[in-house]
Amino acid sequence: MEKYKSWSGLSKQLTDSLCDALKSRITFFLTRYHSVHDSYGRAAIRLDGKELVVFSWVEMYHQEADTSELWKVDRQRPYDEMVEELKPKWDADCTYSEMDFLDAALTFRNMSIKDALDSENYIIKILVILDKRIGKRTLDQIKTANEYLQYPPWVQQFYHLRLS
After folding, report:
1. Using CA atoms, how far apart are residues 83 and 109, in angstroms rounded to an integer?
2. Count of CB atoms situated within 10 Å of the CB of 121
3. Neighbours of 104 (CB within 10 A)
4. How far from the centroid of its chain's Cα atoms is residue 2's Cα?
5. First to last CA, the chain
6. pTM above 0.70, yes or no
């Protein structure tokens, strides 16, 4: 994962990139439990103080349990293949940890809007749809294409926010 100096700096970058309509309503949250082994934590995206989506260290254990089940069946199978097979399940259930959120946020900072819109990472899709660099024509194209309606509900809610 790419390095970052501080959560407050990264949070400020994410907040500064929000479209004007949502700038005062969306907040990004991250905390670390330093007394817990490996300083696990949780991240969230909030609207008016209400958490719309949460990325928690607990989900990391669910990911490990899922890959462990596949590994029991085929111990020779590469880990990347198992993750690729499980990705649709994790996408549907939002089985992502705060580290997945951080990785997506750090990746998003260095992406073009076009690359972010084309990303298969739903967290990046959320960050880009909230971004102020998306113009009215692009929003109209997204709304007309209705492709976002195929995304899981936890992702769709952000599109509804921006497109309504």
Report:
1. 24
2. 19
3. 22
4. 16
5. 34
6. yes
Please state the φ and ψ torsions of residue 97, each to the nearest 5 degrees.
-95, 175
List, for residues 65-113, the tens digit of each pLDDT value: 999 998 998 889 999 999 999 999 999 999 999 999 999 999 999 999 9
Q: How many helices, marked H, and strands, marked E, lie in the chain?
A: 8, 3
Rounded CA separation 25/116 (Å): 22
Place of tokens 């029991």: 72
Euclidean distance between CA atoms 94 and 155, whole angstroms: 9
Whole-angstrom CA distances from 124 to 24, 38, 104 are 20, 25, 6
Tokens 């992702």, residue?
155
Whole-number Å distance between alpha carbons of 88 and 158: 19
| Structure-token match 């102020």, residue found | 132
Task: Name the stretches of the chain with pLDDT < 70.
Answer: 1, 34-39
CB 149 within 8 A of CB 131: no
Cα–Cα distance measured from residue 30 to residue 20, given in angstroms and rounded to the nearest whole number: 22
